[in-house]
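Input.
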Amino acid sequence: MVKVKPFCGIRPPKEYAAEVASRPYDVLNSVEAKAEATERSLLHIIKPEIDFDPIADEHSKEVYQKAMENFRLWKERGWLVQDSEEHYYIYAQTMEGRTQYGIAMCCHFEDYLSGAIKKHELTRPDKEEDRMIHVRNQKANIEPVFFTYPDNEEINAIVESVVEANEPDYDFTAADGFGHHFWVVRSKEANDRLTKLFADVPALYVADGHHRTAAAARVGQECMAKNPAHTGEEEYCYFLAVTFPASQLRIIDYNRVLKDLNGLSKEQLLAALGESFEVECKGAEVYKPVCLHNFAMYLDGEWYSLTARKGTYNDEDPIGVLDVTVLSNLVLDKIFGISDLRTSNRIDFVGGIRGLGELKRRVDSGEMKVAFALYPVSMQQLIDIADTGNIMPPKTTWFEPKLRSGVVIHSFE
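Output.
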């Protein structure tokens, strides 16, 4: 069971929403963010190193101070305004004609510590600490985390009723072509009912934003330790998430490119692959994996279908069934000698949003020697891994579209 609540969101006036809302801090490097940031963009708050010339070290004290200064200025200038009453908010996204409807809410840090908010990735302490500094300094969750939950018909009905009965408070299409739609849930009855319904949801699952979730929970612990009168109802106990029903989400592929063939010729590599895979040359036309345990490989101007032979994988194991595991065991480790994806400098990862043409481009350019495309992980696989307390291998899931940061902010000041 999970504990959630509505909150007094800090958000842009309607006329500024499209400009303030930005891509998340971790999908842009500093140079890209500086080029993309307009005057009111939230990038000045979440990547404030761009306000220095030259661009400053994002972990410097001056940059953290600049984030605080910009957040204060955005509120003073009326580019961010706090609602006077607590609400849930519906945040919908449209990509390629498909719309998914999430609820912006506050989740309790103790649910993360207890495991009622389930994770599927490991986090890095240095990245956690960086996010903690921002949350601690701002006394706010500037960027939401991306959660999912098992479908609930009554929750879906409430969301549908709000959407059908009201014009969206925001409705804009970002530069990447993805639509973003936002409604304030103004009915107290609907807000109260959502709180009660989520109390019966067995678990929430982190889809994207493991470091922000861990950082928010640790800041909540810090605040609790400093408050001898702590009750568990303080605003600092809660952090911002946008939570979607699992059936509406789609995970896209996360692919691999390698810099060398580990000393093998093309013929030797194909022979080595043939020990574990049915290998079929598909020619120059792009080949996309068609099912679980089927892979695409691009090598020397040609695409190949690789289908793992029965007995080389374990569909009864929530980790063993994953194609990232199959590829790592049978190809990356066994043939290429890459056993640690987190530290090897011979491999890079390409989100499926870039398309398989990006794999071809990087190999054809000579930067990489071979590329492997994977069939996407399913939401059920993600849930099975989280439910069994397992951790996915690195670079397994890619969710798209990403949440825009700055559509709504949670303050615990």
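The radius of gyration is 23 Å.
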